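User: Quick sanity check before I run a bigger batch. Here is a single chain. Can you write out its predicted 3D structure?
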Amino acid sequence: MVLINDSTYMNCSTSLEATDVQWFHGKNYVYAGRAILEPYDERFSVEINASSGACNLIIRSVQPSDAGLYECADDEGSGDRRSIQLIVLGIFRYCNFPISKVNVK
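Assistant: Done. Predicted structure follows.
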């Protein structure tokens, strides 16, 4: 769990090269082994530690839209997979739903 506007990271370790790791948010690619893809490239980054095999996904200024299932996969996406559910907590500043009128007599 993380609060809105805080930062967080997710760990993924492999015995393969970090460039062989891919990160997904749901079915969307976030990191494809060499670069963060749009629209994630503004607040997301990857921290690679070749000696430990870590390929950590870092999210700055977490937003409600960042919530969901994240998955890392090694061997260019066809190897072992691990997943984590990101839950974002905080106060939403507005609601975007219709409010019906009530007649008071």
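The two ends are 46 Å apart (CA to CA).

User: Great, the batch can go ahead then.
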